[in-house]
Amino acid sequence: MPDNAVESHSQIQLYADERLARYGFSDGHPFGRDRQAAFLRAAEDQGLLDRVQRLGARAGDEFQAKLFHDDDYVDFVAERSRAGTGYLDSGDTPAESGIYEAALDVVGTAVAAADALMHGDCRRAFLPIGGLHHAARDGASGFCVFNDCGVVIEHLKRQYGLQRVAYVDIDAHHGDGVYYGFEDDPALIFADIHEDGRFLFPGTGRAGESGRGAADGAKLNLPLAPGAGDREFFEAWAEVEDFLESWQPEFILLQCGADPLAGDPITHLRYSAAAHYHASLSLARIADRHAQGRLLATGGGGYNRENIGIAWSAVLKALIESGSSR
């Protein structure tokens, strides 16, 4: 294999294995444990898996989870997971046996991916079973037990002293756990395009929500009407690009949920995978300009298995093309 092929291969890390696939729920739950496999089949069919460095789960621990989450909540999850019954919230997120360990694996892997980017071991990384953006500091929500994105943001601030971490969310649902977890933190640059909360869970993310106190103006929420498609997304994305360029982030974290694609059983947006490809490629270029190429993508939601394969393959393709072009 030519040296340049080896180099481009090592630029992109993909974290996906059977341990990460354990994060999910049984009995026909929308967030089932087959979601990673749906993506891998599509990526394999497109020849993408041969062009990345494939890595597996990295074990997380309670100390990492507690970077973002309250101690009592982390202990509560451990206790309820051992019991293996009931819910961690009002009825969306089951307390199934082993969910504590599975959620910690997602956290540990996300932190490991962030470290790899910070150490220069790769230029882009993708964690399909990640992006659990609804979990609050003190509770589960919307299928999300531990907020790996929130943990990574805290880790980057504390371990590396970063002062401008950008979190960009294109999931159909508003990233409320991240937004409210850092609403008054000016170090977190937040941009979120989502279905209007008047029509979809969690009901938040109004256009006027731009941060509080010292962070006022560091957050951008762009709600779209039900039925919005690529045209509306691309119009909103132009605002995201201008916003990020003005802040010059040192690290970019993308939550690329597949649920805005037409045909998702839970949401009402109508994107094609062109939205995910364009957003990922655009963020990679911004990362090259301002963040030494450091871009970590996490999968997030998506409940139509075919759409998961289409959307996340588009993300991975963009990461590969952007990382290999240098």
Automatic annotation (TrEMBL):
Histone deacetylase domain residues: 29-319
Gene3D superfamilies, per this entry?
Answer: Histone deacetylase domain
Q: Which InterPro entries match?
A: HDACs (IPR000286), His_deacetylse_dom (IPR023801), His_deacetylse_dom_sf (IPR037138), Ureohydrolase_dom_sf (IPR023696)
Q: What family is it from? A: Belongs to the histone deacetylase family.
* Name of the protein in its database record: Acetoin utilization protein AcuC
Naturally occurring in which organism (per UniProt): Natronospira proteinivora
